[in-house]
Amino acid sequence: MSLSRRTFIKGVIAGGAVASSSAYLFRGGGSLLGQTSAPGSVERLITLVVNGQQRRVDALRQETLAMTLRYKLGLTGTKLGCDRAECGACTVLIDDVPHYACSVLTHSVRGRQVRTIEGLASPTGELHPIQRAVVDEQGFQCAFCLPGFVMAATGFLKTNPNPTREELAHGISGNLCRCQDYDKILTALMRGAEYMRGA
Predict the structure, then answer these.
(1) Which domains can be identified in the chain, with CATH numbers?
(2) Which residue, 2, 61, 88, 179, has most beta carbons within 10 Å?
(3) Predicted TM-score (pTM) of this structure
(4) Taking Cα atoms as reference points, which of 158, 170, 166 lies closest to residue 196?
(5) If the chain, 199 residues long, is cut into consecutive pieces of 10 residues, what is the mean pLDDT of each piece?
């Protein structure tokens, strides 16, 4: 029987595929046979609690929360302004504390409560007092940075519900507005604090 080069190569490839698959099943892919994962491996399909709902997501080990929220869960209110924890546009609440989502790994928030700008409104669609105040005061220009400011202020006002203007300015100082519209934003957030106290 004559063996052509092409047939030989196909046989080698098929044999390699079978060998590597069986090695995976019986050694590396432990979860298929009830074994534990290999040391240092990270489960990719995880459950997050986002805006009060459990969401299953396939997240890479090095994936940031901002990327997961925007591109896998469709929560585009979390903006990517700098991707290095400098502008605050990606601010979300994790267990009611403001965090830059671009600097938090998705795997690190399993079992914690994540809230984005989309999760501030009530289930009936009524705006959160801070969101309502921003609309009432028209406290923005382009509004790209605004979700981050609203989330930072929401977290800050949970710890200090009756701040002075200076205290609130300090509380949101980790957020940047490239339109330089800080005065209007601060006025709107102060009104939001009033609305929250009256709620």
Answers:
(1) 1-41 (no CATH), 45-198 (3.10.20.30)
(2) 88
(3) 0.79
(4) 158
(5) 70 63 46 50 88 97 97 98 95 98 98 98 96 95 96 98 98 96 96 94
